[in-house]
Amino acid sequence: MVQGPEQALVQPAELAVRAGVDHSLSADSGSGVPGLEPGLRRAGCEARARGVPRPTVLNALWSVLFFGLRSPPAGLVDIAVLWLAILATIVLFFRISAAAGVLLLPYIAWVTFAAILNASIFRINR
Fold first, then answer.
1. Which residues contact 50 (CB under 8 A, 6 or more apart)?
2. CA distances, 33 to each of 40, 50, 62, 111, 114 (Å)
3. In angstroms, rounded to a whole number, what is the distance separating the alpha carbons of residues 33 and 46?
4. CB-based burial of residue 9 (10 Å sphere; 0-12 exposed, 13-18 middle, 19+ buried)?
5. pTM metric for this prediction
6. One digit per residue, pLDDT tens: the chain, 126 residues?
7. Contact 83, 112 (CB under 8 A)
8. Cα separation of 91 and 44, whole Å?
């Protein structure tokens, strides 16, 4: 039996139903924040998650500013915002799971070290 193009397409939700996947942790649980469990929406985590800058975006931006544009001052401003975003993410993660928060501690330690190096380079080149 030959299927037409409209029959060959299977939606992700249909695949999840066929596989018996729990939808509470699916890619979009209706909260607007991918992977956010319905119980976390009630806890107010959705609103807080939307207000926090994404550390990965800030991390990529730092590389462009510091190395690409060769601007330690701009990199220092970005890394300060990055550090605060990571701290906010750690706080949010600790509210959900202590293990998740602990797993981010090496990241903030590394960014702290990078910030010290960035500040040193800025001070030396002033």
1. 32, 33
2. 10, 8, 25, 26, 30
3. 6
4. exposed
5. 0.61
6. 555 555 544 444 444 444 444 444 444 444 455 555 555 554 555 545 565 568 889 999 999 999 999 999 999 999 999 999 999 999 999 999 999 999 999 999 999 999 999 999 999 998
7. yes
8. 13
Q: How many residues does the chain have?
A: 126
Q: Residue 21, Cα to own-chain centre: how many angstroms? A: 24
Give the C-alpha separation, 8 to 4, whole Å.
6
User: CA 119 → CA 20, 76, 114, distances in Å?
Assistant: 52, 6, 9
Is 45:92 a contact under the CB 8 Å cutoff?
yes
pLDDT in tens, 74-85: 999 999 999 999
**Packing angle between helix 72-96 and helix 105-124, nearest 10 degrees?**
170
Q: Using CA atoms, how far apart are residues 47 and 86, in angstroms rounded to an integer?
A: 17
CA distance linking residue 96 with residue 93, whole number of Å: 5
